Amino acid sequence: MTGRTHQIRVHASALGYPLLGDILYGASETNLTARPVLHANSLTIELNEQRETFRAPYPDDFRATLGRLKR
Questions:
Q1: What's the CA gap between 7 and 51, in Å, rounded?
Q2: How far is CA 43 from CA 6, 26, 56, in A?
Q3: pLDDT tens track, the chain, 71 positions
Q4: H or E, element range at 59
Q5: pTM of this prediction?
Q6: Euclidean distance between CA atoms 56 and 30, whole angstroms
Q7: What is each CA distance from 7 to 13, 17, 45, 47, in whole angstroms?
Q8: For residue 22, how many other CB atoms are within 10 A of its CB?
Q9: DSSP string, 21-55
Q10: Are the C-beta atoms of residues 21 and 34 closer than 8 Å to each other?
Q11: Do the Cβ atoms of 25 and 18 come closer than 8 Å?
């Protein structure tokens, strides 16, 4: 609605914590991932006193990056 994009990425970078893989907003280049590591596992929306939760499993590349980080 605001027309503003990448807000989470901008704020994280401004706080000194750019997202892994987000070279556009200050992260160092890495061979761990080909893209910014950002994923909403679940989202809950409440509208007219009804609450709905949506879930999305991690994409394969995200899961692989997490595995590399754990090593």
A1: 25
A2: 17, 27, 9
A3: 666 778 999 999 999 999 999 999 999 999 999 999 999 999 999 999 999 999 999 999 999 999 999 98
A4: none
A5: 0.74
A6: 25
A7: 10, 13, 19, 23
A8: 21
A9: T-GGGTPPP-SS-SS-----SEEEEEETTEEEEEE
A10: yes
A11: yes
Return the residue matching tokens 């160092």. 28
Instruction: Retrieve residue 1's tokens.
Output: 């609605």
Residue type at 37 in one-letter notation: V
- Helix H or strand E encompassing 56: none
Token pair in block for residue 66: 């997490």
- Residue 64 tokens read as 């692989």
Residues paired with 55 in a beta bridge: 42
- Least Cα distance to 38 among 16, 12, 15 occurs for 12
* Residue whose tokens read 């605001």: 2
